[in-house]
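We include the entry.

. . .
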Amino acid sequence: MRILKPNTYFASLILLTFWSINTHAQESNVSVNQDTRFEQLLKEKRKINPSITVNDRYKVQIFYGDNDKARKALSDFKRDFKNIDGTIVFESPTYKVWVGNFKSKIDAEKIMVDIKKKYPHALLIKPNK
């Protein structure tokens, strides 16, 4: 191994120092081109999203049983109560039909009076997922 002379060593060190000062990181501008339908999809998701929330909301369970009967119960409910959303939830081995999305228990109980006329076995629940 050859040892550099002090003059060459210092000259290399100074050259390397000046060279590292002049180096730059990569600089560039990034532009994203997105489809206009993407914004429309986001708006729709924002509208739907509050109705999807399960936590801290009350629901009314109108059916508990097999898949075919659950689908029929949900379609009958949607026909009778057009302004209340409903969904089918699978918890092994049965299907449950949950309707409504109420912030308070009082709101849910008010609607449940009307629902119990058609579905006498309906019960008020507060899912905890």
Observations:
- The helical segments are 6-22, 36-52, 67-80, 105-118.
